[in-house]
Amino acid sequence: MPVPVLLVTGFLGAGKTTVVNHLLANADGRRIAAIVNDFGAINIDAELIAGASDGVVSLSNGCICCSLEGDLLRTLSTLLRRDPRPEYIVIETSGVANPADIVRNLMDPVILREAPLETVLCVMDAGTPPSALDDALMRSQLRVADIVALSKLDLADEGAGLRMREAIRAQRVPAVVVDAKHGEIPSALLFPASDRTPAPREPGPKRPSEERFETLSWTSDRPLSLPRLQQAIGKLAPKLARAKGLFETVEQPGRQMVFQLAGGRATLAPGEAPAQGVPRARIVFIAELGVLTKAEIDGIMEACVVVEDHS
User: Fold this and answer.
1) pTM of this prediction exceeds 0.70
2) Does pLDDT of 228 surpass 70?
3) From CA 288, how far away is CA 293, in angstroms rounded?
4) Hey, where are the domains in the chain?
5) What number does CATH give the domain 213-304?
């Protein structure tokens, strides 16, 4: 029996992981395997959804639309050999991925026969300015979508969802547009009837890849001062497209916090218990090429570290 694939795309910070998390946490008995691609050496997103599904596979330090495309196909083959076999596979792309290239890879005849691409879901922050749709990468993510899910409606002003729907319509996107409050999307839209065979897709000609973003990772084996971290993020935020991380603070020892910066908004939330054998602070910064240096990040972030007094 073929295993349908749901491809989840969307720009940096759109809310893809929230959508995938809700989907996996409300699987209603379905065996769902997830492949998570984070653009960086530390795959924060995979940790945020680990345990919510039948199996989470991390593909990090590259993008599955280009440098990791072979890894994606090998990972799919491995998942299809599992016993019991998953009933569905969810692939969450990085925010810098051109999904047309991933669709092209999934049209490989062997993969198409065993794991047909059923649905492409594009998650979009409802608070995104409509002018942002002039961005070529964002347009490419929209144009391959079957469903566009408007996220973060609770954080946007009252008319944001309507403005974004109109902007998407102006792009002549054939996708169905739905609201995804707190990551919720009706499962009937995403999981097909078992007797339905998806039609092959034509993603168009392959275009040369364009290096536009880079990730810079920072770790520490010591806890952070929350007030100092807030000051550091304030300095870095104007240069960042996205940031996310997991860390402990000296104010709440032994408790892991989840940090997210997207669309100029920074949030903190309690996380799972810290894992053994990993740094106590792990943060990934994503910026346009050349905007930030590792030395600049290290210099700012080291000021957040608290040296513990064991005397």
Assistant:
1) yes
2) yes
3) 11
4) 5-190, 213-304
5) 3.30.1220.10
